[in-house]
Amino acid sequence: MIKYIFKRVISVIPVLIAVSILVFMMVHVMPGDPAELLAGDMATEEDIERIREKYGYDQPLYVQYFKYMGNLMKGDLGTSTKTHRPVAEELAVRFPNTLRLALAATALASVLGVAFGLISAQLRYSIWDNLAMFAALIGLSIPPFYLGLMLMLIFCVNLGWLPISSNIWYIAMILPVITVGARSMAVIARMTRSSMLEVLSQDYILNAKAHGFSEIKVVFGCALKNAMNSIITIMGIQFGTLLGGAVVTEKIFGWVGIGDYLVTAIKSRDYQVVQSTILVTAVAFVFVNLIIDILYAFINPKIKLS
Prior knowledge:
By secondary structure, the chain is mainly α. It contains 15 helices and no strands. The radius of gyration is 24 Å and the shape is globular.
């Protein structure tokens, strides 16, 4: 197990390097000259050149990359050219909020998605199967902005059960979590159903039933355990996607997360913020996949043997 984990951790290093290069190049091919944007409309060519030299925009790209990576190794994510504050400080405020929202939404989506998927697989082609898949279809079809607004209208305005905004964090999270988790729940439910149907049709499941194993033991002890690889994969993908920030949801509910922060930075051509935010999100996604790979080995020992 230790050898398998060590190999997976080592394999992440070239991926992180490739991600850093791709993010760096992607940001620097964005249209617009950051020096001109910082200088303003009334700036002269001398002013623009001075700003370009100050921020290192006049240097070759490979020099800028190694300089940025050197600062990154020291924990320096750069300084916002708009707020003139360290990007690390601004991300330290926003990223925990996004992480909290992503964790809660993924947990809710996983519990409901697996439950709906199990019901559909066990009672396939029944009315319960149709209802569960219909709920999943609705979750996939409703745009987040519409769902968020409808939840606020129903539970905050019409019923008055929840405040539109609250200083109590767990109350403030209820509607954003439902809004963000609806689509993930639908995806997990559909994946659980298809994975369970595939496993339940295997010969060893039929053999277990023939030997008198109870339905609960067959479903949870045999079938679900073997279907978990696919289910955990889709859970990890959904969680990693949410780590990138749910921009629409954050806008609707006034959630201080990195999604809104990133969009604002892109609009203002704040390259340092865009570059560091995308890189932090990408690195977090890579580590989420690393954790999923390690979980595979605990769930299915055959993986680490191969």
